[in-house]
Write a structure and sequence with these properties.
Blueprint lengths: L3 E7 L7 H14 L4 E7 L3 H5 L3 E3 L5 H6 L22 H13 L2 E8 L1 H16 L5 E6 L15 H22 L6 E6 L6 H5 L13 E3 L7 H15 L2 E6 L12 E5 L5 E3 L2 H13 L3 E5 L1 H6 L6 H19 L5 E9 L4 E8 H4 L20 H7 L11 E2 L2 E2 L19
Parallel strand pairs: 1-2, 1-4, 4-5, 6-8, 6-11, 7-8
Antiparallel strand pairs: 2-3, 9-10, 12-13, 14-15
Helix pairs in contact: 1-11, 8-9
Length: about 425
């Protein structure tokens, strides 16, 4: 009987280290060639499975796969596509099983956040429901750091490092110009409902009074007057004010400051423009000259300054996913378990996917200062080891060198399928 094949795919917003998880999956699967035959990757996530667009990773050299560890973004393409329930769309699940059966795929690895873990959990269930032996394991990833049960989410540490560095460097710029020019700088970062990324900016502070002077978290209801008073106080004391705001900052009634209207493929409110909204308040009420910036894709693509801890953990969860699958552990996700803060020690465990899917972990109130504008010592102890260490990619002619895979598709065996 032919050896079982494996399927791996990337989902949701990509990160600086999601490819390190891909590297962990593929290298580990290759090391178990006695039990795993081919390793396919879905082109553009689960959509690739539905369309039978399967990339043959066996066409890639060991060197190219190893280079994924230092290459940002999603090497195989990602997607925002949410599978409905089995009852709502049996057609898609039957198609997945048809594709898996046609290509003898018995192992399924899905690399993503909460919605993606929901997909992995659904896939784990359909094998039994439709009489096909399939082992599905989720691989955690999200810059938002909002998956439950894991100490941190691969992708977050590198975003946190980028934001903390950018905040410190921009603050030096503003401080040098504030006497006769810009007095307020606002940096908008990702974080829909959880303020982990915004909190990471607090690591930029070395001494009291350092930037950021104001952090706006989704977990703390925005109060315009309190915010403006804090900005004025900072300018009066230091000559300038640096504000870091999460895209998900919201009023007490739950309305986002930057609700752009519309929904994404997962049904989430589209956000954008909280930095200019905050800047307009500052200009209107205080009259200060300002600048604002949106970190956007830059924060999650910045592999050149990735956290070494993050890279190591991203690879480790990919490796563990394959090991769990080979051990027969179905419908689980590897998680990072913190053993101690200093020195940082961690290990890998597993949790059931049905406990992870669609659950958001927000910042604990104990991590946010009493006034709601900064982080506490407890938050600093948690965050500091996650940004530790450098893992620079190779450089040539002054620029980082990233791998581009061949991504050759295998021949299709089934009729076309519309997604």
């Amino acid at each position: 009987m032919a050896k079982a094949n494996a399927f791996y795919a990337q989902s949701g917003g990509v990160t600086a280290v999601i490819n390190a998880s891909a590297c962990g999956v593929i290298e580990t699967a290759r090391a178990h060639k006695d039990r795993i035959g081919k390793i396919f990757a879905g082109r553009n996530g689960i959509v690739g499975a539905l369309r039978e667009e399967l990339i043959d990773t066996g066409k890639e050299s060991a060197r190219a796969i190893a280079a994924l560890r230092h290459t940002p973004s999603g090497a195989f393409g990602s997607c925002r596509y949410k599978l409905k329930s089995f009852e709502q769309n049996r057609r898609e699940y039957e198609r997945l099983i048809d594709v898996f059966r046609a290509h003898n795929i018995r192992y399924f690895f899905y690399n993503g956040g909460g919605d993606s873990q929901d997909t992995a959990n659904k896939v784990a269930q359909i094998g039994a429901a439709l009489g096909y032996p399939l082992t599905a394991v989720g691989v955690p990833k999200t810059v938002d750091n909002d998956l439950p049960f894991t100490d941190t989410c691969p992708g977050f540490g590198s975003v946190a490092k980028y934001v903390a560095i950018s905040t410190r460097e921009a603050a030096l710029d503003v401080a040098s110009m504030c006497e006769t020019s810009t007095k307020v700088f606002i940096l908008e970062v990702m974080g829909r409902h959880a303020g982990w990324i915004a909190a990471a900016a607090g690591l930029a502070q070395e001494t009291p009074g350092d930037a950021p002077h104001v952090i706006l978290f989704p977990e703390i209801a925005f109060d315009r007057e309190r915010f403006l008073a804090k900005v004025k106080k900072s300018v009066d004391a230091s000559g300038y004010c640096v504000v870091v705001v999460s895209e998900g900052a919201q009023y007490a009634d739950g309305t986002f400051l930057a609700d752009a209207g519309g929904k994404d493929a997962f049904g989430h409110t589209q956000l954008g423009g909280v930095a200019p909204a905050i800047a307009a308040m500052v200009k209107e009420s205080l009259g200060y000259k300002y600048h604002w910036a949106v970190a956007d894709y830059l924060q999650r693509a910045a592999r050149h300054i990735a956290s070494a801890t993050d890279v190591e953990q991203a690879y480790a969860v990919g490796k563990a996913a394959v090991e769990f699958a080979l051990a027969g552990r179905n419908a689980v996700m590897p998680v990072i378990v913190r053993k101690r803060d200093v020195p940082y020690r961690w290990t890998i465990d597993a949790v059931p996917l049905d406990k992870v899917a669609n659950v958001e972990r927000k910042m604990p109130r104990s991590f946010i200062s009493r006034d709601g504008f900064s982080i506490t010592a407890a938050a600093r102890r948690y965050l500091a080891p996650l940004v530790a260490g450098e893992d620079y990619p190779p450089y040539r002619d002054g620029l980082p060198q990233y791998v581009r895979l061949k991504n050759e598709l295998v021949a299709k065996k089934l009729p076309a399928f519309e997604v």
